[in-house]
Amino acid sequence: MRQPASEGLAAEMRRLAEASRDAARVLGCAETRAKDAALRAAAEAIGRHQAEILAANAEDLAAARAAGQSDAYLDRLALDARRLEEIAGALREVAALPDPVGEVTASWRRPNGLSVRKVRIPLGVVLMVYEARPNVTVDAAALCVKSGNAAILRPGSDALRSSLALAAAFAEGLAAAGLPAASAQVVPTTDREATFELLKLDDLIDLAIPRGGPSLIRAVAERSRVPVVKHYQGVCHLYLDESAPLEQAIALALNGKVQRPAVCNATECLLVHREAAARLLPAVGRALAEAGVELRCCPTSLTILARAGVPAVAAAPDDFGKEFSDKILAVRVVHDLDGALDHIARYGSLHTEAILTRDLASARRFEREVTASAVMVNASTRFNDGGELGLGAEIGISTTKLHAFGPMGLSELTTQKYVVEGDGHVRG
After folding, report:
1. What is the mean pLDDT of residues 211-226?
2. Are 190 and 164 in contact (CB under 8 A)?
């Protein structure tokens, strides 16, 4: 049985959340130029403190290697000069985006003369719970601050040193712009109970966003009193329709699986129309195999690849619907578009689904019938990303339909209130 957290830890987490609530009141009224200045100054601070950040990350990596973590896990955790520049670039991109706070999304006048407007406002305090992705620390902080929210950042223990170093640089940006230090706080302990104490504080925290593996998301959803938006599994499919061009099929399959196999928008299953399988699979399979991908195949696809001399293995029943997060790809030949739609409906995780086709009717039907946070037509699953879709950095990709679905950028970190103006109106 799980032991209750100490009273000291519970009190510490409440104090942290109370500081966030106070900061959120300031941020909610902060001018856009102050928020943008904080983000730009934070980007400069990351550059100045590169050596300290990379040293902290090296300690995290050494500990993770000693714990026997996989190469894919280490890739998510690792920082280098290029990734730090990308993180700083994301800060500048968010600073350049329009501020959603105060945006009027609709307005009308009632017959009695009342003026009604719907206006975007911050959510308040956002708790991010995530695993070994130190870039999330800065992405989440930036998006929350720009949208007027205070962020409580709870990284996995493997990324704590890196996250604290990045947060220190971000704090310099906040200070330079005169914004509260508690606008973005990293929980400074590896004690797992700290997360569960925070999840009890529905009087102080407005939204929890878990970002990581199924066990993390399940634990947060089951224990939280705070509303939860889930960044759940990325079981993403690429369906090669009967008319799919060969060269594009190879390009999309390689990009989706090989570029960064550990990310949530990587392709995990390749579906191929049976009339195109003999034409497409040998070349696509060979390109994937030469890139180091293990192909786990249905009987039909296994036979086609074996005849072509492409190495592959038989798929286990649970290989379909699995997020491998590695250079492993499930492969299945389906009867037609209906078969692909049925497979995706059964095994998809509402994240990203892609079709490659030259048939407009097939494309439109795929768009209409597939339920996912993003549907790609003739494009890689890897494009379901806030930056790629023009949102700037993202706080995550929600696979929960309420209140956001897909990449969560600035607008998704706001809600709306009604503003009603009258002239002494009373209701009859």
Report:
1. 91
2. no
pLDDT at 5: 56
Decide if 395 contacts 276 (C-beta within 8 A). Answer: no
- ∠ CA(113), CA(117), CA(123), 5° rounding? 150
Side-by-side strand order, sheet with 236-240: 313-314, 294-297, 328-334, 267-273, 236-240, 352-356, 374-377
Q: Which two tokens stand for residue 112?
A: 């009695």
- CB of 129 closer than 8 Å to CB of 157: no
Q: pLDDT digit string (tens) for 390-413? A: 876 678 889 988 888 999 989 999
Q: Characterize the bridge pairing of strands 184-186 and 150-154.
A: parallel
pTM to 2 decimal places: 0.84
- Token pair 């696509």 is found at 284
**pLDDT average, residue stretch 163-190:** 98
- Ramachandran angles phi, psi of 280, nearest 5°: -95, -45
Each residue of 179-191: pLDDT tens digit?
999 999 999 999 9
Crossing angle (nearest 10°) for helices 337-347 and 360-369: 20
Q: Are 192 and 6 in contact (CB under 8 A)?
A: no
